[in-house]
Every structure is written in structure tokens, then in C-alpha cells.
Design a protein that fits this description.
Elements (H helix, E strand, L loop, with lengths): L1 E5 L6 H15 L3 E6 L13 E5 L13 H16 L3 E5 L1 H16 L7 E5 L2 H4 L8 H10 L2 E4 L2 H10 L6 E3 L6 H4 L5 H7 L5 E6 L8 H14 L2 E6 L5 H10 L6 E5 L5 H5 L3 E4 L8 H8 L4 E4 L4 H4 L6 E4 L4 H12 L2 H17 L2 H13 L10
């Protein structure tokens, strides 16, 4: 099949998922065309079946805000016409679904039929999409999609709750390439981070308010009072300066390392004893799944779709949002008991295997097959 994938090219969950999906499809012989404004960060390999089409948005003094959606739809039309795409798969509804609808209608005038599938990832529904400025267009473009998928049952329920969606939404979970994480930790790396045998905790996010990164620091400070520990903070974002200042106020600045954005986080997660995710909402929690693939138990909130992957008392623990005391207590319970920690590590990895890329990508291929013409051929 010839598949067009439209996504944000950033470190966020939707962009990572879309890029890894495209790479996996290309490995299986499909032609994959990425359409976005810059090369996705995870698109770091050469594959003869992968093509990248940059959306160029011209700037004119007339425009206070460059019309990205129009430029995106035009680029989609060009790729459909020039490369004979069989379908479009757009990740994150805003503005990708509405742009795909526009492109579909344009090529219809030339006698071409191009189905488009919309995958909902979270904040496109629960945060941005609910804004009255966007809601009518989001609702319309989702309903006009030929198929709709969501990355968790919770997100599916939230979509029906807040939008008048008239079509079925299928749940196809996020995935992780377990083989990337299933390797031996680098002992020398761990010794550099924790030279005196300290426990290592980790967190990864975009450092936005919804992630409640201040709770990560509070939990760590409580853990560090009882057990000498180090905290690795992966990612960057608007809350980082405040969080760095907070580490000084709580007296843990020397125990916390801010690593910034990392393309390959497996080496970091492999040396961690625990992963902390304190979010107000996660439609799925891809960062938690990647931690589990690295044999790292997760202490998280019970927000959104997190309980669907982090099984309380088995792969880690889920607590109410903002319950710093419960999170730190559960963390100490695991860190103070090596046998229990090893048991949870085993469970976490086995849970990650259920979401391995080899199990999820065929679900997308099956979905594509419902809309692909009979003469579609694997490229």
C-alpha cells in the first residue's frame, strides 16, 4: 500500500507513535509518505520505502498567522496526485483531519477517491478540541473521516462524551518496540549517575502544566529523605525553569539531572529503578509504556488511560491525582524491597510485551485493508 502519514514531527506521543508506525509499515514493504512541516525527530534512519514531504508555508505581510492548514491540504493534494496514495492516516485531529477532508474533496473533482483515517491521541480531544473556537470543525472533520481510532478506551469514551460523534471509534492502543529496550543496562552509565549506589528515579514529559512536574519533584524529595536517590528528568518545556528552582527550594538540586529532549531514551530508562508520571491527564501514557519495556515499574496517577496500562499492584501503582504522599509511599515500598522490585520489573516488561509493535501494527494494516482498493499492492 501507498500510505500518507500526517503528524506533528515533535517529541510528543502522537508524533512518536505516527513515526514509529510509518517506519514499521515501511519495513513490511509499504510505501510511507510523511507529510509535515519538518522531518519527524524519530525519523532518523534511511529506508527506501520512506518519503518525506515538507509542508512549506509562505509568509506574507498580509498574514498575521501563516495559513498552515491550507498549505498542508495543498501538499496532501500534491502527494496524492504525484505518488498515487491509497489512503491518508492523520494523527491528531487539529488541524490534520480538517486538512485531510479538504484534500479529499479537492482530488474528488479529478475523479480520485482517497479515504482518510483519523487517529485521536488525547489533547486534540480533551484540551484543545473542547475549546469552542475549534469544536465545530473538530466534530465535523472527525465525523467525515472514513475511520476513527483512539489510543485508549478512556479516550474513546471522552470523545463521545464531549463531541457529537456519529461514527464508531475503534480502539487501537499505542505501542512500543520492545526490542529497543530489552537489553542489558550499561553499568558504567549507572555508576556515573549514582556513584554511591543510589536509587535512580526517572520522569519524561514536555514539562507542561498538565504533567504536574512539580509533583515529581515533591515525590522525589520525600523518597530521598529515606533512601539516597537520584532523579533523571527527560524532556523540556515551559515549566522547566520553575521546576529547576523548586529543586533548590526543596534541597534536592544536586540529586536531580535535567537531561533535556532525548531522541533515544532507552539507555536512560534501562538504568532507572522507578518511573514517575504524575499527570492530570494521559490519554494513554506512552512514556510509561516505554519505561515498562525497559523493565522499570511505574508510579503514576490514575488519570485517563493510565490504569489501562499501569496495573495497580502489579506493574507499579496508580494513585489519585496530586496524592504526593501515596506516590512516595508506594515508591519507598518498592525501593526498600529488592525482591518485590524485581517482581514488579518482570511484570512491567511482560505488560509492555502485550503492546509490542509486532502486535499493534497488524491491527492498522487490517484497518487500512478495509479501504484499500483491490489492486493495492505492497510496495
Amino acid at each position: 500500500m501507498r500510505i500518507g502519514i500526517v503528524c506533528y514531527p515533535t517529541f510528543g506521543g502522537s508524533g512518536v507513535l505516527a513515526t514509529e508506525l510509518g517506519k514499521a509499515l515501511a519495513d513490511k514493504g509499504h510505501s510511507v509518505h510523511f507529510i509535515t512541516y519538518q522531518q519527524p525527530v524519530r525519523l532518523n534512519i534511511f529506508n527506501a520505502n520512506i518519503y518525506y514531504h515538507e509542508v512549506r508555508v509562505p509568509t506574507y505581510p498580509l498574514f498575521d498567522y501563516p495559513p498552515y492548514e491550507v498549505a498542508l491540504a495543498s501538499t496532501m493534494v500534491d502527494v496524492i496526485n504525484n505518488h498515487g496514495l491509497d489512503l491518508l492516516h492523520v494523527h491528531y485531529a487539529i488541524p490534520h483531519a480538517s486538512a485531510a477532508y479538504m484534500a479529499k474533496k479537492i482530488v474528488e473533482k479529478k475523479g480520485l477517491s482517497i479515504p482518510f483515517i483519523t487517529t485521536l491521541h488525547g489533547t486534540d480531544i480533551t484540551l484543545v478540541g473542547k475549546d469552542k473556537t475549534y469544536e465545530p470543525v473538530v466534530t465535523f472533520s472527525i465525523n467525515e473521516s472514513d475511520a476513527i481510532t483512539a489510543v485508549s478506551k478512556n479516550l474513546k469514551e471522552e470523545t463521545y462524551k464531549f463531541f457529537k460523534i456519529t461514527k464508531d471509534i475503534e480502539v487501537i492502543y499505542n505501542f512500543v518496540d520492545v526490542s529497543r529496550f530489552n537489553k542489558k543496562p550499561i553499568d558504567a552509565f549507572r555508576k556515573v549517575i549514582a556513584p554511591n549506589g543510589e536509587r535512580i528515579l526517572a520522569h519524561a514529559s514536555n514539562f507542561r502544566k498538565v504533567k504536574r512536574v512539580d509533583d515529581v519533584i515533591k515525590v522525589f524529595a520525600k523518597v530521598n529523605e529515606k533512601i539516597p536517590s537520584k532523579l533523571l528528568m527527560i524532556g523540556d518545556g515551559p515549566e522547566r525553569p520553575m521546576i529547576e528552582e523548586m529543586t533548590k527550594e526543596l534541597g534536592v538540586h544536586d540529586e536531580v539531572r535535567f537531561l533535556g529532549k532525548q531522541e533515544q531514551i532507552e539507555e536512560i530508562l534501562l538504568i532507572a529503578d522507578l518511573f514517575l508520571l504524575t499527570s492530570d491527564y494521559e490519554s494513554f501514557g506512552l512514556a510509561a509504556l516505554e519505561a515498562m519495556a525497559a523493565h522499570t515499574p511505574v508510579i503514576s496517577t490514575n488519570a485517563g488511560g493510565l490504569p489501562e496500562i499501569n496495573i495497580h499492584g502489579k506493574t507499579g501503582y496508580c494513585t489519585p491525582i496530586g496524592d504526593v504522599h501515596a506516590m512516595s509511599s508506594f515508591a519507598l515500598e518498592l525501593l526498600e524491597n529488592d525482591d518485590q522490585l524485581k517482581h514488579f520489573q518482570k511484570n512491567a516488561f511482560e505488560q509492555a510485551e502485550r503492546f509490542d509493535i509486532s502486535k499493534i501494527v497488524p491491527q492498522y494494516e487490517k484497518l487500512y485493508g478495509r479501504f484499500c482498493k483491490m489492486d493495492c499492492k505492497s510496495q
